[in-house]
């Protein structure tokens, strides 16, 4: 990763006493930008995420994202190479230096398959899903939840190893809601930080007295699995048409038939997308099911790549 490039006249930054050269823009969001940079010291490519901190609360959120990255050292959670906070002209930016995964996100892979009129083989789905679940288990085991799991937040390397990214919405796995005011606070937070078409039902209308736990991620995981099977999320079209996603998620997920995937994989999908969070499985159970579907050695990976 990262061949030598001409760095003449390239703008550069320094993080942790190491110099990096800007190559090109990769993504641009509402309050963040991602640039491709090259390390002058090692010739490797990195993704530089720049978060605009327009107020003290935004800076606190960026600091939380940094802390979440530093909390994990796991092969399926994107690592943080370095970070810094830059103060310029009275404005603050958080700079997060991350590994550059050239293959892109699960969503970009699915888009290519859709454009070719192709599909993702079941063995490949199970391989990717297994890695996603291993990353989620690491997060859940430390008492946190991702809260914004979706195909664009899962990167794939050349061997289809998935990396969970965008940890800015992560918080404590167990949230105890006591009263209508706290319920509205959680609901408003979810509306801002949890992508609507992958958001668990219990986050749309938060009850006044309840416990929200990490099984919000299991619902989102089911949506990601559905997307890998159908090449679109279960509620993407509903959202695009302007219909109510909040209403749609109150009903069991409908798997289009005929379905070319095994009944066992369809059952796994239905098991993750249970409307009542108390009836939804935890990540350990999901992993056991995936291992059973893959076989004892887990080496049944299809070579039909995008």
CATH topology of the largest domain: Transferase(Phosphotransferase), domain 1
Q: What is the architecture of the largest domain at the second tier of CATH?
A: Orthogonal Bundle
The main β sheet shows up as: 6 strands, antiparallel
Supply Rg. Answer: 20 Å
Mean pLDDT: 92
Helix content: 25-40%
Summarize the structure.
By secondary structure, the protein is α+β, with helices and mostly antiparallel strands. The protein contains nine helices and twelve strands.
3D architecture notes:
- The chain is an alpha+beta fold and 306 residues long.
- The chain has 2 domains: 88 residues, Phosphorylase Kinase, domain 1 (2-Layer Sandwich), CATH 3.30.200; 189 residues, Transferase(Phosphotransferase) domain 1 (Transferase(Phosphotransferase), domain 1, Orthogonal Bundle), CATH 1.10.510.10.
- The chain is built from 9 helices and 12 strands.
- A 6-stranded antiparallel β-sheet has the order 1-2-3-4-6-5. Strands 7-10 form a two-stranded antiparallel sheet.
- A hairpin with a 2-residue loop joins strand 1 and strand 2.
- Helix 3 packs antiparallel against helix 5, helix 3 runs antiparallel to helix 9 and helix 5 runs antiparallel to helix 8.
- The longest helix is centred in the middle third of the chain and has 20 residues.
- The two termini are 19 Å apart.
Please give the structural blueprint.
Elements: E1 12-15, E2 18-28, E3 32-39, E4 45-53, H1 56-71, E5 82-88, E6 91-99, H2 106-115, H3 122-141, E7 144-145, E8 154-156, E9 162-164, E10 171-172, E11 175-178, H4 180-193, E12 209-212, H5 215-230, H6 236-240, H7 245-248, H8 263-272, H9 283-294
Antiparallel strand pairs: 1-2, 2-3, 3-4, 4-6, 5-6, 7-10, 8-9, 11-12
Helix pairs in contact: 3-5, 3-9, 5-8, 8-9
EC number: 2.7.11.1
Domain Protein kinase: 20-293
InterPro entries: Kinase-like_dom_sf, Prot_kinase_dom, Ser/Thr-specific_kinases, Ser/Thr_kinase_AS
